[in-house]
Amino acid sequence: MNEIKPVKVRGIEFGSGRSKICIPLTAKDEEELDEQLLALEGEPYDMVEWRVDHFTDSGKQTGEIFRGGEVAVPVLISRLGELLSKIRAAIGEERVILFTFRTLEEGGERPLTPDAYETLVCAAADTGKIDIADVEYRTGPGRLGRITGYLHERGVKVLMSSHSFTETPSLDEMVSRYLQMQEQGADITKLAVMPADRSEVARLLTAACIMQETYADTPFVAISMGKLGVLSRVGGCLTGSAITFGTAGKASAPGQIPAEDLAKVLGILDIR
User: Fold this and answer.
1) Among residues 8, 157, 190, 250, which one is catalytic?
2) pTM greater than 0.85 (yes/no)
3) Model pLDDT, residue 57
């Protein structure tokens, strides 16, 4: 079996033991963010993902963040440090913050130009308050390498992601995509696909097994979305998936289940 080198962040090892539970924060404004952070109390989780593409209102004093994408990005950047400090205070020092702007093309809430996307992700690293940043593989090799290098220089790990919201690619294509992301310097790779039937869920899990046993040098995440794909969320640890996404309220992707339920199932499946 291939040996995967775990990635350690704040004492949490990705790529060893059970899948780590990540809860998304999908607030549209600061008031809702406060509510979602309060809802985390008592939940079993290892990390949060701040889905910044959901965050549209920076407050009454500064107005809307997104008024056509790039134009208003500086408004959000000016508040990143403050908002990330709020998140850190709520989750404590031992848990991990994953910073994500999911673009419309990858299933997110709103579009963002490539330049604005790069500026925003790098600005998040500059705050010194994030542990991992999601970087979309579709960004393209040149920009991808530049963003990855910038994040690594600032001590931020890169979770490189690729999403297919309309299909499950062929087995060869999924393995190839994992390998390409790995070659681009990802610390963790992530593939999320949409199944049409149970055989396509099995195809995604097979790709994960191939990565775990043969090719993966770094931790990876394998998610089959929607109701059909729930098996990949609760049983991904058996095929090597390092992270699974659960909810403490609103879901950020189809098929997510409550973090409490995830923790129970993962405890049963834990084969360490």
Assistant:
1) 190
2) yes
3) 66
